[in-house]
Prior knowledge:
heterodimer; A: mainly alpha; 5 helices; 3 strands; 62% helix; B: mainly alpha; 88% helix
Amino acid sequence: MSTGEQSRASRPDLYVVARIIKSLKEQNKMNRTALATSTGLAYDKLVKYLDWMQEKQFVRIEGDGGFVVLTERGLETYDGLVKWIMEYVGRLRFPKLGSGA
Amino acid sequence: MKEESAVAKVGELMSALDQVKRYKALSKGLKQFAVLLGCTIIAYLLIRVLISILALENSVLNQPSIFFALSLISLLVVLGGLVGGALLVRRKVNSVAVGAWREDLSQGVPGALRILSEINWEATFDEISVGRISQLLYGILKSIAYMVILFFALESFSSILLIHFLGVRIFFVGVLWAFVSVSAVLALQSGDLLRRYKEGRSLDFLLYELRWFSNEYRRAESSFEA
């Protein structure tokens, strides 16, 4: 595997991060198992993402039950993604195209 | 509401990219269309040569009604090639699977992000560039086919009229029919050719917009990872 491929493989997937944040946004706080079910992620993969998200201060772990809670920064990040889509995809102008043939 | 609008915007983008897929299918069908058309024109010319050779030996073939029927049949070969080719292209364009992204998009913003991250921008740019040329070439090829068919028809039926009924032979009448064919088809097809030219410009514009967007997306993705 080349260095480029390695860095690509270790990159956090925006889609997964957004799914975790969305689930937490809807449920307020969740334990890891429920969060894995809700996001459809394998437990070990979720844990890796949660570690990265904790590092970035998007989530924090609360209490003995290990509840995952969305932080203000995590919420801002999600809103930022929505805003980004609105701003950049929204700025695109699509010309009227024919049927092809 | 803000999230829904963002998702709808990505939906618009994907609909435009679905359209680009149709242009790609057109470019694939174009080669077959050209080959089919070329073969039928060659077949027509061979049939005409064969009829002329046989007419030298068999006087029945020189009768105007027989000659007319044979000319008509040979013309149908070229016409069949044009119609068959156009149907083939249409079938290819219509068979393009579109809207596969709708399921992802139903997941909201995460789905929209997944769709954006999975777009192969370089392949999309190539598809637009090829599609832009193909749709114009298709229009030009179709117009040339109409000209050829009209020329063959005029040339065949005028020779029946002039040689068999009036008994005269006018030299260079083919040049006149060529001029008539080109002028008539250009007059009839100018609207279609202009539409295709404008569509090419629209695809240019789309390419420019998407290049800008892909750069912004890559930049945003890198800044998020950092």
